[in-house]
Amino acid sequence: MGTTTPPRTLAEALRARGDESLAGLLRARPDLLNPVPNDITQLATRAGTRASVVRALEHLDRFALQTAEALAVAPDPAPYGILLSLLTGDGLDDGEQRDDVGAAVTAALPGALATLREQALVWGEDERLRLVRTARELLAPSPQHPSPTGLGPTVAEATAGMSPGRLQEILTTAGLHATHDPVSAVAALSALFTDRTRMAELLDTAPVEALSVLDRLVWGPPYGEVTPNPTPPVKWLRDRGLLLPVSTRTVVLPREAALHLRAGRAHRVPEPVPPVVVAAAERDPQAVDRAAAGQAFTALSTVEELLKLWNGGGPAILRAGGLSVRELKRTATALDVTEPIAAFWVELAYAAGLLATDGESDERYAPTPASDEWLDLSAQHRWTHLATAWLPATRVPGLVGGQDAKGRALSALGPELDRSAAPDVRRRVLALFAELPPGTAPDPETLLRRLRWERPLRGSSPSGEGTDLRSRLALWTLNEAELLGITGRGALASQSRALLDGGEETAAAFLAPLLPEPLDHVLLQADLTAVAPGPLERPLAETLSVLADVESKGGATVYRFTPGSVRRALDAGQAAADLHAFLAAHSRTPVPQPLSYLIDDVARRHGHLRIGAASAYVRCDDEAVLNEILADRRSTGLRLRRLAPTVLASQADPNSLLEALREMGYAPAAESAEGDVLITRAGARRTPPRTPPTPVPEGPPVPDDTLLGAAVRAIRAGDTAATVIRKDPAEGGPSSTTSSGSLPRTTSAETLATVQAAAMTGTAVWIGYVNAEGAASQRVIAPVRVEGGFVTAFDHTADEVRTFALHRITGVAELAEDGKG
Known about the structure:
Strand order of the largest sheet: 18-19-17-16-20
Number of strands: 25
Largest sheet: 5 strands, mixed
Radius of gyration: 39 Å
Helix content: 40-55%
Distance between the termini: 16 Å
Strand content: 5-15%
Shape: extended
Structural class: alpha+beta
């Protein structure tokens, strides 16, 4: 077969790959698939575009990026040995433990190169490694964009605009032979800086202050400002070309000189091995599981409390979207948490589809119909629902309270909280947790170092939030995972490992035995309180929350009975007898006499006053009560007047009048136009059916194997059509124009004869075809049948059988013998 010719372009390098390798490229860089390239040349062109290369560089780990940076400052093309020396140094420095670093770099470099080759950022054989031009431009040094390696331009680049006379002066001062040829002068100066012996001799004559200047520039940035009359040390360096002028006030340390001072290293500290995540504490795995389960139960209780709080219609929506600062504070106070934590619970319920906007004219947040279905689930399944909603969510509650790029405040449930990197960070943080032994709590700082090593270019954010958004996302993930019960005491719980590996049902099975069983009783006490020694069954908890106010939470919940809470239960349609029966049935202790008296006393006064619409009126059979209301100065704002001995009228609406009289200490009841008492039941407001918010994707999704296989076949087929060798007319083929990039041209008779012959012999031909929309294309087809003005053929370009209209074929050409197959 002969020797393989080295590829001359990226397209040739990609063309030489196997199908699995091409599929790997498309899997690593899915943006190349939108749309599917027509052929290999188009794939190579798209892989070299700036946006695609930036996206690929952002997904490199630290050492792969360092390898690409070293290639950016290496000669183009660069042999493998030069690349290795740029990463390990020339071995002539006196730094300690360099041998260990060099061995690690030597071992890791093939893998880093393989990654760069797979992603089409590097191509060529080991002796001619080439970084794609766009990546070189992005990573190479310039005054506007200093190199990540801290190296400046080469001598040739820095002296491009320098006069020959100035070059001769530098050569003479540096002790080199002066030449009038600028190319020879640049080569001589470059040779001096790359010769370790001569360079060492030159630096031995340098003033100490000049060496200090070099020390400040050697690891970057390599640019410095000078005055019109520089100091003697700077003048000494400038006269010998160790500092070359970039402008009238800026000088630069040339790359060759910097590499000598660095002992040949492109990076001060190569990082071929990922940092190890260190254990901060070793805990009992069972204690971790119990702590996480306890926090998971607290999470469920908090979300249920939030749904109950907004049950009758939650806070109004800001004009720009989201919750106001006042409403967030009110919610935090009701949940007894801080505002950042309240923002987390609100956002979690929203991401899980339990809260949404109601779509009314005075738009508010309210529970969704899905929240009722969620409340009917078992505790373990309610938790898995929340956890699986949290993992892929792109909304970031930690941003609440900050500002966007335009200085506007970011509010909870607002439209500017999506960060597409959040799901990747969450899953990667939990994956690092899972790599540790059960019960191990990682050290957060080492975990952050590992994340920075894995994605060193992914820290910045386009919204101007800082230079390390990825680290902030990781820290928020640690806090949120603890709040949600994913982790316990800083370590990953067994149920969370099961959720990551086995899915929701497996996690629910792990969690169920760790959650407390709901209780069907409380302990009533003589001080008008009830103690729930654990979680209560849902019907009991709902009724008790109406009849009493929660006084404290913890291992046991304390409820307090007050006249207002008892009135609230009566307003909801309960009778005094119902309340007595409820307490007797669910208390493990006798019902205290003070509580019975409280219920009877409130019930006796409940409904004594009646409020209706007149604008509003008050009626009562006891005239003395109405006299008392009229005499009370607090009723002045209601503008009451007597219509009859037992009826008062007011300018206020019925609801306002109802609330005002309750604040004055009365127990009025609302009534209908027919005079019946209106029962107000809590929590009937629901939004229309809503779907949870869709996460904002981070770039195109990773294609599956089926799509990858079809894409590779289409690209190969298109490449065959674009690069196939056509038979020259001089060899006896049809009269056609077969120059590259143009459609063949033949007469109708020649076209028909050629495709009929191809159908009889089973050979493939090259055609030009114009479809119904007028789009022209080149195709390689194998005709099967020719009849009725149509050709049925296997289209190698589309990898399927198609029918072509003969009148739309512009021309046909046979394939040369070495172009078949």
